[in-house]
Every structure is written in C-alpha cells, then in structure tokens.
Design brief:
Layout lengths: L5 H66 L2 H4 L7 H15 L3 E8 L4 E4 L14 H9 L4 E2 L3 E2 L7 E10 L5 E10 L1 H9 L7 E5 L5 E3 L23 E8 L2 E9 L6 E7 H52 L15 H75 L4 H92 L4 H89 L1 H58 L4
Antiparallel strand pairs: 1-2, 1-6, 3-5, 4-5, 5-6, 7-8, 7-11, 9-10, 10-11
C-alpha cells in the first residue's frame, strides 16, 4: 500500500473537518427546513382551504338569513288569514329573487298543496309540493332549515344547484307551508378557481356523497371522485402527505363544513415542495464546494509548515547516513515547537559527531605516525640484535680456539721450551684479540643502551597513544549518551502522539482527523529513533575498533616491558662480558708474565696454562649464555615487529573509517 503524504492527510482531515459539520448542519437543517417548508405549505394550504370554507360558511349564513327573512314575512305566516297575502308574498319573493342573482327560484309550498313560485310559471300548478323531498324534510324539521344534495338544473343551464328550505309556522305554531329557494353553485367554482395554493395548487369542493360541486375545471363538476379514481380518504378531515391524482403527486388538506357536510379539499403539488427543497439543496452543495475549496487551500498552506521542516530533517539525516556531516539543519521560520526540538537535537548530534570525528582523525594520524616509528625502531632493534648474536658467536669461536690452543700447549709441554717464544707471540695476539673483543663489546653495549633509550621513547609514545585512544573512547561514549537523549526525545514524542490518539479517541468522530496526525507524528518519532539507532550502531562499531586497537596497544606495552627486561638482561650480560674481557686481558698479561717465568720454570707455566684453560671454559660458558639471551632478544624483537605491523594495519583501517565521513 502506497504511503500517503502529510499534505494529503492534512487536506483530507480539513476536508472532513469542514464537510462533516456542514453535512451535520445540512442534514439537520434539511430535516428542519423540510419540516418547516412542509409546515409552511401545510399552513398556507390550510389557510386557503379555511378561507374557502369561510366563504362557503358566509354564503350559507347569508342564505340562512335570507330564508329566515322570508319565513318570518307576515304575508307568509298569515297566508290563510288574509286574502291579499298570497299576492303580497309573491311580490316579496319576486323582489328577493331579483336582488339575489345566484338564486334562480323562490317559492312557498302550502299545506294545502298550492305553490307560490317566483318567477311565475304555470308548470307548478300540476305539482303537489307536499310530495317533494325539500318540503317533506323541512316540514319534519319544523323550523330548522335543510339543504338538499346538489343537483343539475333541469331548465337547460346544467348548472349545479342546491335547495334550501324551511317550514313556515303561524302564530299558533301550526304549519303554513315550506319556503324554498334554488341556489346556483357556479360561484363556488369561481371561488375555487381564484383560491390559490402555492403556484399550481387548487381547491375542490366535494359533497358528502363524493360529487364534485366546486372545481376550477368545469368538466369535473358533478363527477364523483370514484369515477375519477381519487382515493376516498381525501374526504376525511385532516392531512394526507402524498396522493397520486392523474399521475401527479399532491399533498392534500381537507376541512369539513359543519352546516352542509361538504368537504373542502386543498391540493398542493408535491413538486412545489420538492422544488423549494432543491433550492436549499443547491445552496448546501455550493457552500460545501466552497468549504472544500477553502479546506484544500488551507490544507496546502498549513501542510507546508509541517512538510518543509520534515524534508529538511529527512535530507540532513540522509546526508549523515551517507557519512556527510557538513550540512546543518536551517530552522528558518519553523513555528512548530516539536519540530524545532528535533532540529536542534539533530544539529547537536551533528556538531558533537563532527568534534568526535575531528578528534578521531587526529588520534588516528597520531596512531599511524607512532606505529610507523615503532615499526622502524623494532626493525632497527632486530638488526642490532642479529649483529649482537653474530659478535657473541665470534667471541665464542675465539674462546673455543683459545681452549684448543691451551690443550695443544698441554700436549706439547715436552716442546715447551722450544715453543715458549711462540706462546709469547700468541699471548700478544690474544691481547690484540681481546682488545678487539672489548671494543666490540663496548659498541654492542652502546647499541644496547641506544636500543633501551628507543624502547623507552617508544613505550612513552605508546602510552600517550593509549591515552588518546581512551579519550576517543570517552568521546564515543558521549555520542552514545547524545543518541540516548534523542531516543528519549523520540519516546516522549511517541508518548505525546499516543496521548493525542487517546484524546482523539475520546473525542469520537470529530477527533479522527487528529488521530491521523498523531499517528504521523508517531511515525516521524520512530524514523528519528531509527536514525539515532543507526548512529548508535556506527558509534558502536567505532568503539569496537577503538577497543581492539586499545587491546593491541596494551599487548604492545606489555611486550615492550618484556623487551625492556630482555634489553636490561642483555646490557647486564655485556657488562659481564666486558668484565670477563678485562679478566681475560689480565689473565693474558699474567700468561705473558708467566711465559716469561715458564721460560725459566716449566712447571709454573704448566700450572698457569691450566688456569688459563679454566678461564677459557668460563668465557665459553658466558658466551653461550650471551648467545642464548641475544637469540631470545631477536625472537622478542620479531614479535615486536609483528605487533608494530598489526598496529600499523589497525591505524590504516581507522584512517579509512574516518575518511568515510565528511566534516
């Protein structure tokens, strides 16, 4: 899975932070706005329906007042008491009808079966009003008006009409007859047409049987809602959220007229509600897009404040990983406190590492120089040791020859007299040879003293080198302490990231974005810890190499001590040889003097020769010891040469390691 950049994460977080509240507010506002819009539409529709209902109620009230006026007319009440009352009543009915355009007919049906009808017509003479429903029901009600079901006008207008009738009672509360008036309902359709609900909504007036008696579309008048496939529920008082009529959805609000039991049904197209909601939805989308653009812009702006320091840290660590410690991190205008701490820590590590590498470079150069000097000194010491062995061997050979010569003298004692002179000459030669040996011993002693002085200088240099290597080890330990400090800082950063994750988890959905940032901070801390571990590993390798060099130096110092002891032994041996040579010279002189005496006294000469033979044996033994010591010294010098070569190799390795770093 490809890792996401901090810029992408911050932008995503800001988008969520911007959009989630908008979505929450949008959803809530959508709910409340939808509820409010529906409530407003319902209120508006209901007001229109109630207004329509009020108009109908007012008309009914006017009609009831009109019929009450006619019923209370004195001519009607005294119809059978005064002969002129029928005529006067007719004129009253005519006047009433003329003043009310919506009333087509006004009439009185008497208990005797007669009818006074306005407008005047002969057709009523053949009809007994007492058989008509309007008469029967009104007569039964005795004072309460009745309204018939709507019906079509039979006079040819096809208009819908209703009849309102009421019983006329005389002073004795006896039935005189029933007054009725036929009212056209055309104005109800006009009112329905002029009653606006929204933009395309309308009002329909339906009687209790489901017949439409008021509609903006005249073609639907007097049609039953069953025939139009309208749901019967629309006649019930109340609100129906959605009703599909003629393929279109409507919100329906119904009110009942108490006097007529008619249903006033208001139809509001659902598309109008949805259209208003769509306007609001578009506004939310526009706000969301603007918020998204703002979040992206802010995310791009603020992510740079995090990304730029991280890139600087990444570049610096990459350079240090490759051994380049020449570049420090420029904090610039970094405003993030934790980033400044990390940058300062890395800069401190770089500076301390540069100091250590400088010291290490200087120490490695000193080690190289000292190892070269030690190598040269040991090589010279080896050559001097070989020369000492050769000189001692010559002395041994000379003493061996001398012993053989003494033995020949003993064997030739009978010819002593003749050869005393030769012996004296030989004694002179021996004195010369002893002088030569003495000079050689003197030179060898000086060489041994010079070797001892060189060894002391070399030992001092090695001790100083060991001290510098110890200083280098202490500097490396300081780096380890610094890396531990960085580890501690990264652990504290990880702990802060963990605390941020916990707090974001407590914050719930609103804190998820901060959990992502905390996670990225934790990863950055892990990367810093990894880099510190890498530095610690490099320092560990340096410490290991320094320890190996230090161990070899201590071995070299111990070897130098052994070599110094051997040199002291050799010096003592040369002193012993020198003393022996002195004794030898003295013996030779004595021999020379003895030869003179031997010349006169052979027995004394024989004794002296025996003494000289013993001295020769001692010299031979001494030279053998010196030879053995010289050989041991030569072997020790070879070991010193080998150690010096190893030290030289270690110094080369240390130099190559130091050169890998750029400081």
């Amino acid at each position: 899975m490809k890792n996401k950049s901090i810029k992408h994460i911050i932008s995503t977080l800001l988008i969520f932070v911007a959009l989630i509240p908008i979505l929450i507010v949008g959803v809530y506002t959508n709910y409340s706005q939808t509820k409010s819009l529906k409530s407003n539409f319902e209120s508006s529709t209901k007001n229109s329906v109630l207004s329509f209902q009020a108009m109908i109620a007012q008309k009914n009230k006017n009609n009831m007042e009109s019929i009450d006026t006619l019923v209370n007319d004195g001519n009607a009440k005294n119809l059978f008491k005064n002969k002129e009352s029928p005529n006067w009543l007719f004129y009253s009915l005519e006047a009433f009808r003329s003043s009310h355009s919506e009333i087509t007919n006004v009439y009185l049906g008497t208990v005797k079966g007669n009818t006074i009808f306005s407008p005047k017509t002969d057709a009523v003479n053949s009809i007994d009003p007492r058989t008509r429903p309007w008469y029967k029901k009104a007569a039964e009600m005795k004072g309460d008006p009745i309204i018939t079901e709507p019906y079509k006008d039979t006079s040819g207008t096809n208009s819908l009409m209703v009849t309102i009738s009421k019983a006329v009672m005389d002073e004795k509360d006896s039935l005189v007859g029933v007054i009725g008036m036929d009212i056209k309902l055309d104005d109800l359709s006009a009112i329905a047409k002029n009653t606006k609900i929204g933009k395309e909504g309308f009002v329909v007036l339906v009687d209790k049987n489901g017949s439409i008696i008021g509609h903006k579309d005249k073609e639907k008048l007097n049609k039953n809602i069953k025939d139009l496939n309208w749901p019967k529920e629309i006649l019930n008082k109340g609100i129906i959220d959605k009703v599909k009529i003629d393929g279109k959805e409507y919100k329906v609000i119904t009110e009942k007229d108490g006097a007529t039991s008619w249903s006033i049904v208001g139809f509001l197209p659902y598309s109008e509600i949805q259209s208003e909601l769509n306007k609001y939805y578009r506004m939310i989308v526009i706000i969301s897009l603007l918020s998204l653009a703002g979040a992206l812009a802010i995310g791009g702006l603020f992510s740079k404040k995090i990304i730029n320091p991280i890139r600087k840290i990444e570049d610096s660590l990459a350079c240090m990983k490759d051994g380049d410690f020449t570049q420090s991190i420029d904090k610039g205008e970094t405003s993030i406190y934790e980033m400044e701490l990390i940058m300062d820590g890395i800069n401190i590590v770089r500076e301390e590492t540069v100091k250590i590498l400088d010291s290490l470079k200087s120490v490695s150069s000193d080690v190289k120089e000292s190892s070269d000097i030690l190598k040269n000194i040991t090589e010279q010491s080896e050559m001097a040791g070989n020369e000492i062995v050769q000189v001692v061997q010559n002395i041994a050979d000379a003493t061996s020859d001398q012993a053989q010569s003494m033995e020949g003298s003993l064997n030739s004692i009978s010819d002593l007299s003749d050869k005393v002179e030769n012996s004296m000459e030989n004694s002179k030669e021996m004195v010369k040879e002893s002088d030569i040996v003495r000079n050689i011993i003197k030179d060898s002693g000086q060489a041994v003293k010079g070797l001892k002085s060189k060894f002391e200088l070399n030992s001092k240099s090695n001790q100083e080198l060991a001290n510098k290597i110890n200083t280098l080890a202490e500097s490396s330990n300081k780096i380890s302490i610094i890396t531990e400090t960085i580890q501690s800082i990264t652990e504290q950063t990880s702990l802060l990231a963990l605390n941020a994750s916990i707090e974001s988890a407590r914050a719930g959905e609103a804190g998820k974005g901060f959990a992502v940032v905390a996670e990225e901070v934790r990863k950055l801390a892990e990367q810093s810890s990894t880099s510190a571990s890498e530095i610690e590993r490099v320092v560990y390798n340096i410490n290991k190499e320094v320890k190996d060099i230090l161990d070899k130096m201590y071995e070299t110092i111990e070897l130098e001590k052994d070599t110094g002891d051997k040199i002291d032994i050799t010096d003592n041996a040369f002193n012993t040889i020198r003393k022996s040579i002195d004794k030898l010279e003295e013996s030779i002189r004595n021999v020379n003097e003895s030869q003179k005496i031997i010349y006169n006294n052979k027995n004394d000469i024989l004794n002296k020769i025996n003494e000289a033979s013993s001295v020769s044996e001692e010299i031979a033994a001494t030279t053998e010891e010196i030879t053995a010591s010289a050989e041991e010294q030569a072997a020790g010098l070879k070991e010193v040469v080998g150690s010096a070569e190893k030290l030289n190799s270690y110094s080369d390795t240390l130099n190559s390691l130091v050169k890998q770093f750029k400081i």
